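User: Let's play a game. I give you a shape written as tokens, and you guess the letters that built it. Ready? Here's round one.
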């Protein structure tokens, strides 16, 4: 693990923040038909903890998309694995690990909106506003982070380090 750098958000800080966000979501969505849409693979650790911090019945589903770095010639992100359920007239909350430029989530939101959900919002663990190109409405946000590349808690570098229970910098990246 020689590539692993400074820990910038500890597991405890993440746990406390998720508890806060979870209780806010429980209040905001009380009585609604909440569907958490986890964006794989980065969102898997976050959604696992977040769903247990939400105190109401909910559905969880998963989708997988090609990121903007591997986008098709049309510039669109592709859905590699679609949702299993129909989200029409349901209250959809997209769960993402990080927003950087906003391209990935921007495309995804457009695709999901076309399916006519009752509402469509975003919860994101990490936000890197310095690199934002596409403006997105983010309803719930964990932490703002600086420009450096990070790994851990679902986020990877070449598919590694998703299992780290904290967010840390990566030496030599970017
Ligand atoms: P965007 O389209 O630029 O917003 O990119 C967002 C996607 O890029 C995220 O869903 C992540 O999968 C990936 N990503 C962006 N920054 C990082 C990082 O610092 N570490 C790991 N993955 C990242
Ligand atoms: Mg992602």
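Assistant: Ready! My guess for every position:
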């Amino acid at each position: 693990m020689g590539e692993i750098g400074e820990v910038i958000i500890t597991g405890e800080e993440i746990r406390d923040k998720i508890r806060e966000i979870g209780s806010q979501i429980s209040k905001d969505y009380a009585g609604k038909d909440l569907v958490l849409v986890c964006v794989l693979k980065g969102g898997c650790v976050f959604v696992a903890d977040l769903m247990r911090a939400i105190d109401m019945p909910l559905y969880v589903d998963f989708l997988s998309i090609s990121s903007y770095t591997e986008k098709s010639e049309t510039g669109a992100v592709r859905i590699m694995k679609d949702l299993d359920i129909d989200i029409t007239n349901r209250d959809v909350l997209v769960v993402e690990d990080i927003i950087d430029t906003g391209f990935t989530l921007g495309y995804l939101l457009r695709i999901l909106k076309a399916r006519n959900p009752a509402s469509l919002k975003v919860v994101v663990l990490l936000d890197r506003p310095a690199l934002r190109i596409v403006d997105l409405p983010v309803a719930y946000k964990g932490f703002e982070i600086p420009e450096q590349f990070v790994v851990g808690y679902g986020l990877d570098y070449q598919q590694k380090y998703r299992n780290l229970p904290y967010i840390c910098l990566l030496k030599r990246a970017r």
